[in-house]
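Following up on my earlier message about nicotinamide-adenine-dinucleotide. Here are the inputs again, as you asked, copied directly from the submission form:
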Amino acid sequence: MFNHENLKGRVAVVTGGGGVLCGGFAKTLAAQGCKVAVLDLNEAAAQAVADEINANGGQAIAVGCNVLEPASMRAARDVIAEKLGTCDILLNGAGGNNPKGTTTKETLEKIDLAQQDPEVKTFFDLDPQGISFVFNLNFLGTLIPTQIFAKDMAEKGKGCIVMVTSMNAFRPLTKIPAYSAAKAAVKNFTEWMAVHFADMGIRVNAIAPGFFSTKQNATLLWNPDGTPTARTGKILAATPMDRFGEPEELAGTLLFLCDEAYSGFITGVNIPVDGGFNAYSGV
Ligand code: NAD
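Thanks, got it. Here's what our run produced:
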């Protein structure tokens, strides 16, 4: 399907690579001949992705690490440099929402002020630590790996960074204030870095996935019995193509952004891959 000769032999670092979307990104880059480092807090998940790549004739290593800890990322960088070489492509994918940063209802109602229902978490009940957890994972969790890996790119005078934002980067979604704010911040940060690194030969762009059914959004999309939540109905009604995306549908955009033969003059963009969600006003 793809043939990106330019990417052959490049070292690609994929954070969150043990997860659904970024595991797909890791496999896509490996299929083009990249040497892939699959980074994840969940080392076993990262190893499973690396094993699959190696079994299919690609080259990958798994590295257990935490994108929020600079020392952990420095250790990962050293392992990667020794086993594969220094980073050419950084995909900042680790992230996601968490129930700790989620309100129960979309909008506040008068009854919520009086009612002490422990099942209902209002905006006023949100724990700042839960908000920090989600915000930091998505924002600092992209800034810290970039500090570690972009230095090698700057020294080489060449590199490509791909961020993963969300529909929240354009307009906030209900219930998830920390995730919404963080992804808007990641879009802004993408633009900031594109400017900051422009003279260093490093391009920085983002992919904004629409709705894909994965682990990190499972509780918002599916009831415990496996039936779709009301939110799933609203998402599909607001997606003109009337379905969730499939992870492999992000692959073409990733390769386009990584291969300078296709996107060498593109930096600072945030591309929606969303079945039309972002374009649809609802009418
Ligand atoms: P996922 O939960 O399958 O993958 C996320 C991975 O990140 C997991 O493997 C997890 O272990 C890892 N991770 C979490 N915290 C980490 C840490 N501190 N250090 C290192 N690794 C850590 O989720 P996904 O849906 O594949 O999400 C991948 C990216 O895509 C995220 O940035 C997410 O916000 C974004 N995204 C997803 C959707 C969607 O619909 N699924 C939509 C828009 C954006």
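One observation from looking it over: Residues 15-16, 18-22, 40-42, 45, 66-68, 93-96, 137, 141, 164, 166, 209, 211-212, 214-217 surround nicotinamide-adenine-dinucleotide (CB under 6 Å). Hope that helps, and feel free to reply on this thread.
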